């Protein structure tokens, strides 16, 4: 069984991993970074502001998370943002600091001269949160004597500490400035590859970790590095190319190359990642804009169970009546993991209609689509 996975974000990676575990020959094709590369390091089933009772992670989900360098305990973790907010999450990038286990402690906030990090203000804001007041947790800025290159992008600053000598300097500064503190909160600086946080923790006796990354920061880079290592470990072929057209048995790449396959998993992403596009120039309705997948595929787009890819007026899709939910939840209609009415094609992640656009939903749907495509 040869399975083609289109997309290499959270959902595509999970689909490829699950299909390979089911003994399928897997090829992953992707052409650019998607929404997963913009991740903060938090992983949720539902948007955290509306999260209901915690979901139990299945054994396969937990194993895949660990392979990506994520940590998921029996209870949700508590993470800090660089804007001074605290938010729960079901799982986290292993480089982040879990505050849930540090209630009532004194937490040092690394103070460096950087344009994207204000330790005194952040420490004050975190100390004023309801959780900190309830638990008696204190956040205190602690100055580090390091050249932080204040205008250097966070991604590049994080990459700096992949150098052994730079990491040694950071560890020495944390040890020197950490007197009386019970833990360290740093910015999203601990490497663009997994392993830097663990190496630093061996140098410093206190618990330490990052705040959440902003889009384009270290957490997204670490996901991509872990993904590449995981796919390589499973001997999964990866192609950097753009797919223009797909059926259950053939994919046509940009330039005309054809790939013969047995099953296809569409893990294209949603509107944010460019997997679904608003096209003003479709030949079948030139008078108005229409939504469509970013490649030609025999699938149907829907929202709330109703098709939205057909246009009935010269004005195109009615964005005003659908509201922002059209862009958040529009996706491909599915039955289980299979694209409705398209045998041999399966869908995962943000490309699926009417599901939360979250890390763990994407991961779970990717695992399901990969298993189904492999015939497991």
- Helical fraction: 25-40%
Number of strands: 24
Low-confidence stretches: none
The backbone outline, from C-alpha atoms, is elongated
Number of helices: 11
Instruction: Report the structural category.
Output: alpha/beta
**Overall average pLDDT:** 91
Note the beta-strand portion: 15-25%
Q: Over all CA atoms, what is the radius of gyration?
A: 22 Å
Biggest beta sheet attributes: 5 strands, parallel
Give the oligomeric state. single chain
Strand order within the widest beta sheet = 12-2-1-16-24
- End-to-end separation in angstroms reads 11 Å
Task: Report on this structure.
The structure is a single chain. The chain is 28% helix and 23% strand. A hairpin with a 3-residue loop joins β13 and β14. With 376 residues, it is an alpha/beta fold. The chain is built from 11 helices and 24 strands. α1 packs parallel to α8 and α1 (10-21) runs parallel beside α11 (359-373). The strands form 8 sheets. The protein has a 5-stranded parallel β-sheet with strand order 12-2-1-16-24, with helices on one face.
């Amino acid at each position: 069984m040869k399975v083609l996975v289109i997309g290499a974000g959270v959902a595509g990676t999970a689909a490829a991993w699950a299909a390979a575990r089911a003994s399928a020959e897997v090829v992953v094709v992707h052409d650019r970074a998607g929404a997963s590369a913009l991740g903060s390091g938090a992983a949720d089933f539902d948007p955290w502001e509306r999260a209901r009772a915690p979901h139990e992670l299945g054994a396969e989900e937990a194993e895949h998370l660990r392979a990506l360098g994520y940590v998921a305990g029996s209870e949700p973790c508590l993470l800090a943002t660089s804007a001074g907010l605290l938010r729960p999450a079901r799982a986290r990038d292993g480089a982040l600091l879990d505050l849930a286990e540090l209630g009532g402690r004194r937490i040092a906030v690394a103070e460096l001269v950087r344009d994207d990090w204000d330790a005194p203000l952040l420490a004050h804001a975190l100390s004023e949160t309801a959780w900190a007041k309830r638990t008696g947790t204190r956040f205190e800025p602690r100055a580090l004597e390091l050249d932080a290159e204040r205008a250097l992008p966070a991604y590049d600053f994080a990459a700096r500490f992949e150098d052994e000598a730079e990491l040694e300097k950071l560890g020495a500064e944390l040890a020197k400035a950490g007197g009386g503190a019970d833990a360290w909160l740093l910015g999203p600086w601990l490497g663009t590859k997994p392993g830097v946080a663990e190496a630093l923790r061996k140098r410093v006796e206190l618990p330490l970790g990052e705040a959440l990354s902003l889009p384009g920061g270290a957490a997204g880079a670490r996901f991509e590095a872990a993904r590449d290592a995981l796919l390589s470990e499973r001997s999964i072929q990866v192609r950097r190319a753009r797919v223009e057209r797909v059926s259950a048995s053939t994919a046509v790449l940009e330039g005309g190359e054809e790939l013969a396959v047995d099953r296809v998993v569409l893990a294209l992403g949603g509107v944010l990642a460019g997997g679904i596009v608003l096209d003003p120039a479709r030949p079948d309705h030139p008078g108005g804009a229409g939504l469509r997948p970013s490649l030609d595929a025999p699938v149907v787009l829907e929202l709330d169970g109703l098709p939205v890819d057909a246009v009935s007026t010269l004005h195109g899709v009615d964005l005003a009546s659908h509201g922002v939910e059209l862009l958040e939840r529009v996706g491909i209609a599915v039955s289980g993991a299979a694209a409705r009415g398209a045998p041999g094609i399966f869908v995962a992640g943000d490309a699926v209609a009417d599901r939360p656009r979250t890390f763990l939903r994407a991961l779970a749907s990717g695992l399901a689509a990969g298993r189904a495509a492999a015939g497991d």
